[in-house]
Amino acid sequence: MPNDGLVPAVRHRQGEAGPGSRRRFAADEEVYAEGDRAVHFYMVVSGAVRTYRLLSDGRRQIDGFHLPGDIFGLEAGEERRTGADAVTDTTVTAFRRSDRDALTGDAGALAREVVAAMLRALERAQDHMLLLGRKSAKERVASFLLGLSRRAGTGGAIALPMSRTDIADHLGLTIESVSRTLTQLEREGVIALPAHRRAVEVRDGAALRRLDG
Amino acid sequence: MPNDGLVPAVRHRQGEAGPGSRRRFAADEEVYAEGDRAVHFYMVVSGAVRTYRLLSDGRRQIDGFHLPGDIFGLEAGEERRTGADAVTDTTVTAFRRSDRDALTGDAGALAREVVAAMLRALERAQDHMLLLGRKSAKERVASFLLGLSRRAGTGGAIALPMSRTDIADHLGLTIESVSRTLTQLEREGVIALPAHRRAVEVRDGAALRRLDG
DNA sequence: CGGATGGTTGAGGCCGCTCAATATGCGTGG
DNA sequence: CCACGCATATTGAGCGGCCTCAACCATCCG
């Protein structure tokens, strides 16, 4: 979800004794698990969160990565249908689910933010279904990098807080395919891979966009 | 989206000079196109609607099929990000987008219905991302048939209003793979395929559920 | 009956997966 | 500062599931 100016209102509110409370998570710590009762929903303050679903044999599909400003953890029912972990050390603001329920009826800003967040989550889900259903490995990785660079807004250098395994489980690939695709893009001069492997530098954004379809 | 008792309130309302107006579409007629201005959102009264996105080279990904009771066509922005066509002859109720905007602020039932519809759409999107990212062709077809039978609620015999091409573009497969998988399931005694090919009879629901992961 | 449309079946190829080995980065302790 | 160990990433070889391309079949209509 891009930090596109819709969320700061909420972020601001929570700095002034609003309804949200801060919580902190270490890397790989669980925020909530599939099956938990959904008491809160969250906004990322710093760090990154992954939400995912599992098949009984362990196959994992990461629905999305949530970066600062993003709202996650909204549920239709009482129970968590996804799990959520911190990717790196992460701070979030927790809102009570009942706040949402109470506020959808009033004219408050939070209600509008939440509705907007839902609609944007739906749009991202649609984009991701197109990616998973109809794009090649190279196109998937290119889309992923473009999306990250758009959301991070840090220009050429993109931080990759998540592991190759996380990326693979997001893009519907294996870690080997992710790795191979990245090195291929590097050989083609589209990106550069720093030694520490947890970042990507975009060298040819136009080429990436061309791959995105 | 299952017709799970949340929508009839809206459907009822529109029978009594509510905000909705009826519109009728022939099979394969366009309800709206990608890029259109999003003036309305819709609820299916009868028939079926597909919403989809296209890549520039023509590859299509169908986000979902919308059956009677389902709400579709909600957008975060001004523009349509998906196209929508009638699958068969279809009747819908159209609501003005401004109604939603006006109503999200009041305590009205429509606002709650719309929020509930968004959350359910999000859940279905999550299920579908898991399917597209991590399931085999056989698992995809099994999930699809189970989902349809659950939503149609007609027990053993499931109507398939959509073509093999539509199913393929929904499941991220080709028509050949869909066809082969259906015949394979038939050979295994899990389903039966009537001669007219636009329905499926479930013979072994447990086997289908086992395949669903 | 004949043509059109949609669905099924077959043969072969390719992309991404599996299994396995190697490399690299990083933290820890000598 | 280097040696070592561990976790993570990369690279390679071979395989297989789904795709591609093509022929065949069924159903529906005129």
Automatic annotation (TrEMBL), chains A, B:
GO CC annotation: cytosol
Among Pfam families, the record links this protein to: cNMP_binding, HTH_Crp_2
Residue ranges of domain HTH crp-type in the record = 135-206
Boundaries of every Cyclic nucleotide-binding domain copy: 23-121
Q: Which InterPro entries match?
A: cNMP-bd_dom, cNMP-bd_dom_sf, Env_Response_Regulators, HTH_CRP, RmlC-like_jellyroll, WH-like_DNA-bd_sf, WH_DNA-bd_sf
A GO molecular function held by the record: DNA-binding transcription factor activity
Instruction: Report which superkingdom the organism of origin falls in.
Output: Bacteria
**Ranges where the record places region Disordered:** 1-23
Which keywords fit this entry according to its UniProt record? Answer: DNA-binding, Nitrogen fixation, Transcription, Transcription regulation
Q: What is this protein called?
A: Transcriptional regulator
Q: Which organism is it from?
A: Methylobacterium variabile
The organism that produces this protein has a lineage beginning with: Bacteria, Pseudomonadati, Pseudomonadota, Alphaproteobacteria, Hyphomicrobiales
